[in-house]
Amino acid sequence: MNNVHPIRLPKKAGSDPAEARCGAVLTVDLDAIVENYRLLRLKSARAACAAVLKADAYGLGAARVGPALAAAGCRHFFVAHLDEGIALRRVLPPACLIYVLHGPMPGAEAEFLAHGLRPVLNGLEQIDAWRALSRKADMALPAALQVDSGMARLGLSVAELAELDAAPERLFGISVSLVLSHLSWAEIPEHPANVEALQRFRALRARLPAAPASFANSSGIFLGADYHFDLLRPGAALYGLAPQAGRKNPMKPVVTLQGKVIQTRSVPAGTPVGYNGRFVAHTECRIATVGVGYADGFLRCLGNKATASLRGYEVPVIGAVSMDLITLDVSAVRGDIAPGALVDLMGGDAAPPDAIAVQANTIGYEILTLLGARYHRAYRGGAEPTGEQGDLS
Ligand SMILES: *Cc1c(COP(=O)(O)O)cnc(C)c1O
């Protein structure tokens, strides 16, 4: 045939070809994220509420999460890297402020200006570099300052603050729009390090130019009003993770991961399943193979451990997790299981990210941020523009 016509596939109304092609669908409920944002904002009578969108909004897609939160009135956003800020700037309304937590790498300062981003300055080197840029630009440049309240990770130390006290001109040309610090024990409310960090933050902040302050991440918000200051800074709780260890999770679930069955088979008792026969069928057994594996962030340590759900039936993951596949014992499922049948692997009828994290000996943050690039991300909802929020700039 010399005349090749492209084949037209029948298209159902609303059907997404990418969703049909993929091996697994990650559904992100933007309305639930917005509800979580509102719940967190209401935890404080006076503080504004920012959103932390680093690591592609914890793996859920900053380009979709950001605009949904902006439409819900969020005006302050945090990312970790300059590149994340540049990407987020393209999708947010100009009125939204974007802070880059890591501050400028040497030589990259001017890019913050070019892209309308604010650095968080974490030490004297970054302060000096930002001041140098302000001189070159011949104008005052806004930035946040981070102080170290006990985590020893990022931020000005007590010694550096003393150096600043001795040479206050190092801050000339920097208009400090926010002073922030980060808690290292916030998810354990009774831990004494929280109060110590709070006291340190208050003391350190008093030595800097007066500016709005931001201290509380998701868990910190639940430590009470003393921790709220002017701007809340949640990430995890927006995405449905529990802010307090061992307590009921007040946040709405946000993610559902569904894998597709590729094929099913029945095997007799004694059949080894998967690499190294790490599962051996003890009776006759029906197995469904699903196109999700450790390369998608379905951790290898979940082999013989995790449980999925197919049409409401619990179906255990049996054998090793492969790079691109898992095997499920679907013996308990009544009726046919057609290729393409969806199995809930996380959220939905399956365990939430926090529970999977416990099985994998990690935290929900790691489970979310490892969610694979091969998943098709389907978005539900998204807010219409509503309430505005006070300007902290
Ligand atoms: C990641 C991060 C947050 C958000 O923390 P969550 O625990 O996800 O709410 C806030 N502040 C800083 C400095 C962070 O690095």
From TrEMBL:
EC top class named in words: isomerase
Transmembrane segments: none
GO molecular function: alanine racemase activity; pyridoxal phosphate binding
Listed SMART domains: Ala_racemase_C
EC number from the UniProt entry: 5.1.1.1
One Pfam family here: Ala_racemase_C
GO biological process, any: D-alanine biosynthetic process
Domain Alanine racemase C-terminal: 254-380
GO cellular component entries: cytosol
Signal peptide residue numbers: none
Needed co-factor(s): pyridoxal 5'-phosphate
Keyword line: Isomerase, Pyridoxal phosphate
Protein name listed in UniProt: Alanine racemase
Organism: mine drainage metagenome
High-level lineage: unclassified sequences, metagenomes, ecological metagenomes
